[in-house]
């Protein structure tokens, strides 16, 4: 039995999901052989998944999205690092109810990348998602040595809003070690940088942006792409990921965009784990329409189906039909909502409920 599930956001980490599922399965089949490989798609929990797979956790102090120091971690194994931008520039670093769509910075993500380079990383997987920022990765590039200047030759202020005044960009001072490194942009979204499907329009409101802010940010990011000299890349898949940090990585760091779950499964050694599996259990907090667009469970199911291994899922909430699950390669799903209809109580008691759901799965498929 291979458990390859993502976190249940707001209640359980991916590691905890695997622990509770294992406990539930073994209430029915005590001697069941279980291997856990917690997964992530590039967003929150990506570093934790890498550490669970044998990477070493490295912790550094970096600049948070509001400019304050925060503790952030990356994962390292030999010369491969997994960097999660949410560790440095994520919404989780904002005080409750506080947003800064125009001024939040990705500077700390650049510092995290620099720490990975200093640790000897030559392949860096940059997982993006859960960001508090809309600065197109300008802060990240600045931390790595770029100079982004206004008409007076003064560095522009932090945040996406200030990019409206960008007049010149000098990338010649970028950390020289980047030239010898392979940067992989791992994201579960393929939005462009600007336009109606761009970073500001689609994700800005989730970060507190008003309609006026969205218009200002889209114009500022358009200006940013013009000054950096690669307007075409602003429409590239993934350029709009995590407030446009995708664009900064693609243009400034020469990153290659790949679906986050695809990259993480490769880095975490999913193929090797799958060789010994008779059944895979995947899942995440909510199995819904978004799941079908590059989220972890579908990536797991796709890889397992290619090897002829059946897949079942566990989740907090199920909003997909049996036909949609089957089309994604998932034979069935067990939802906590079926055991506890109240969402607050379900999240508060997610662990015990998940053990019950896993026991039901075992009764149906293993006994």
Automatic annotation (TrEMBL):
InterPro entries for the chain: Glyc_kinase_flavodox-like_fold, Glycerate_kinase, Glycerate_kinase_RE-like, Glycerate_kinase_sf
GO terms assigned for molecular function: glycerate kinase activity
EC number(s) recorded for this UniProt protein: 2.7.1.31
One Pfam family hit: Gly_kinase
Keywords: Kinase, Transferase
NCBIfam families registered for this protein in UniProt: glycerate kinase
Family: Belongs to the glycerate kinase type-1 family.
Protein name: Glycerate kinase
UniProt organism field: Actinacidiphila polyblastidii
């Amino acid at each position: 039995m291979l458990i390859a599930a993502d976190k249940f956001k707001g209640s359980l980490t991916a590691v905890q999901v695997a622990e509770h599922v294992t406990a539930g399965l073994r209430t029915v089949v005590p001697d069941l052989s279980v291997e856990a490989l917690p997964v992530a798609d590039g967003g929150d929990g990506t570093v934790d998944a890498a550490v669970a797979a044998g990477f070493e956790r490295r912790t550094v102090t970096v600049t948070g999205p509001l400019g304050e120091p925060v503790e952030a971690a990356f994962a390292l194994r030999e010369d491969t690092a997994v960097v999660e931008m949410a560790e440095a520039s994520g919404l989780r670093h904002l005080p409750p109810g506080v947003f800064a769509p125009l001024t939040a910075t990705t500077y700390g993500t650049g510092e995290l990348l620099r720490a990975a380079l200093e640790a000897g990383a030559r392949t860096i997987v940059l997982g993006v998602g859960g960001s508090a920022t809309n600065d197109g990765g300008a802060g990240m590039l600045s931390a790595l040595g770029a100079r982004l200047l206004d008409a007076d030759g003064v560095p522009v202020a932090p945040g996406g809003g200030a990019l409206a005044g960008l007049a010149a960009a000098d990338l010649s001072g970028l950390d020289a070690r980047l030239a010898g490194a392979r940067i992989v942009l791992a994201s579960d979204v393929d939005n462009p940088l600007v336009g109606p499907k761009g970073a500001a329009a689609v994700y800005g409101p989730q970060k507190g942006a008003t309609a006026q802010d969205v218009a200002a940010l889209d114009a500022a990011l358009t200006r940013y792409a013009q000054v950096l000299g690669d307007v075409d890349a602003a429409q590239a898949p993934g350029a709009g990921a995590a407030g446009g940090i995708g664009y900064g990585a693609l243009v400034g760091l020469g990153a290659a965009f790949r679906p986050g779950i695809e990259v993480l499964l490769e880095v975490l050694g999913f193929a090797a784990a799958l060789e010994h599996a008779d059944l895979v259990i995947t899942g995440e907090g909510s199995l819904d329409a978004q799941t079908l667009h590059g989220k972890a469970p579908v990536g797991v199911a796709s890889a397992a189906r290619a090897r002829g291994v059946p897949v079942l899922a566990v989740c907090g909430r199920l909003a997909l039909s049996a036909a949609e699950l089957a089309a994604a390669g998932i034979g069935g799903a067990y939802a906590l909502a079926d055991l506890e209809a109240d969402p607050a109580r379900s999240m508060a008691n997610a662990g015990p409920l998940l053990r019950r759901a896993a026991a039901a799965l075992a009764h149906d498929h293993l006994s």
